[in-house]
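User: Please predict the structure of the protein below. I'd like the answer in structure-token form so I can feed it into my own downstream comparison script.

Assistant: Understood. Taking the following sequence of 159 residues as input:
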Amino acid sequence: MTVTLREVTQEDLPIFFEHQMDAEATRMAAFPSRNRDAFMAHWARIMSNGSGILNTILADDTVAGNVVYWEAAGESNIGYWLGKTHWGKGIASAALAQFLIKIEARPVYAHVAKHNLASIRVLQKCGFQLVREDLWNGDDGEELVMELRSECCATAANH
């Protein structure tokens, strides 16, 4: 399977919307889905902002998800979302490895639900290390804050 990245286009957004509507995916990410209007407004805002890097993940030319970079509160952050039908195939690891080569800022952070073992493993494969655990929504959940300090991720040389 060939995994590539390209800039997000308007045509990708309905696919991303469907990905984030999956109940298991939102549970794993510990992030609630948005209704169509809120979702499209969010993407319109971040696409027009111009300060981040927004890439679509393609698996054999099929839109599989997205990976994004942004700065908030003085920190560089990455996040990614993969459609459920693309889980467990190494796509997220390959995409993140490629994406991190584009990001010059270090350290870069990722916030991940503590129960999302697959996503934690993706981050570890790419060289991220645990820096702290946080609670969110009061006591409703725990997240791990992972940090990457090196120039590129551990798996980047393999892709």
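That's the full token string. The two ends are 11 Å apart (CA to CA).
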